[in-house]
Design a protein that fits this description.
Keywords: Membrane, Transmembrane, Transmembrane helix
Order of helices and strands: HHHHHHHHHH
Mean pLDDT: 82
Number of strands: 0
Distance between the termini: 46 Å
Helix content: over 70%
Number of domains: 2
Largest sheet: none
Shape: globular
Low-confidence stretches: 15-20, 94-102
Radius of gyration: 20 Å
């Protein structure tokens, strides 16, 4: 079983970005496997508070030790932990009611492997295991955005206070993620610092307004999250290319075509309900 997990993980990571030889990947593989199994235990036990606290402490130790570039992906780590707990507890299929479950549901395995993979990618970027780290971080970045959007659109706030609260949470989440993104992916000198700060706030407002508009569409929350992730990806990429002096008319036309095409596919596969 462990041998199969190792081969699957290496295959996926080779698709995302080149990796070093197995001896250099092995430490983060065992850390990610520990994270995955611990998360699976959490799901089986249905997230007791004490076990959740222990899980958070263990996950931080796995992430932080050894102390190398710990702050570089700290935002992604801080975001991944609550997102994984909230998504799994909200959408996991219930276990057998009588006693301990004899079998673990497919959703429990799926969530554990998904979040274990994201943790694996995070460690690979942090410890410079991947050669194409920017591409790997793009995948991690979009995955976290999608999970956050899934939670946002699946919530059903009934009071104005809850609507404002959800919006404030999304503002803080987006602002922190964008700050980390541009510090890792984009190259900006000191003279562009103020411009980059303004650009982050503009992106936050655009994404927030897009969430409000998409929330009005009568489509299921998973497709709404996909549409919001697509919009966020397009405008973030345009901003990144601007700071890297790579923005061109051809790039804008191509991104517009991609956005229209994928938006059409999302609408076609959606179940429209009033």
């Amino acid at each position: 079983m462990l041998h199969k997990l190792k081969n699957i993980s290496l295959t996926i990571l080779k698709k995302i970005g080149n990796v070093q030889a197995w001896p250099s990947v092995q430490p983060i593989f065992w850390k990610a496997l520990t994270f995955t199994l611990f998360f699976l235990i959490l799901e089986v036990e249905q997230f007791p508070v004490l076990l959740v606290i222990i899980f958070v402490i263990v996950a931080f130790i796995l992430y932080a030790k050894p102390l190398f570039k710990t702050r570089s992906l700290l935002v992604s780590f801080v975001v991944l932990i609550p997102l994984s707990l909230l998504v799994a507890s909200r959408f996991a299929i219930s276990f057998e009611p009588a006693g301990l479950p004899t079998t673990i549901s497919f959703s429990a395995w799926a969530f554990a492997l998904l979040f274990g993979l994201l943790f694996y990618i995070m460690l690979g970027i942090k410890y410079l295991v991947f050669i194409r780290r920017k591409e790997a971080y793009h995948f991690l970045h979009l995955a976290l955005f999608y999970l956050a959007f899934v939670l946002y659109f699946s919530a059903t706030p009934t009071h104005i206070a809850s609507v404002i609260g959800h919006s404030l949470i999304m503002i803080i989440f987006t602002l922190l993620m964008l700050r980390e993104f541009f510090s890792i992916v984009s190259i900006t000198d000191q003279s562009q610092a103020n411009t980059a700060r303004i650009a982050r706030w503009v992106l936050v407002l655009l994404i927030l307004q897009a969430l409000w508009v998409i929330n009005l569409l009568p489509i299921e929350f998973s497709n709404a999250a996909s549409l919001a992730t697509l919009f966020a990806f397009i405008i973030i990429e345009i901003t990144r290319r601007y700071f890297e002096n790579g923005l061109s008319a051809r790039f804008l036309r191509w991104n517009f075509l991609v956005f229209i095409t994928l938006t059409g596919l999302i609408f076609l596969t959606s179940q429209w309900t009033l």
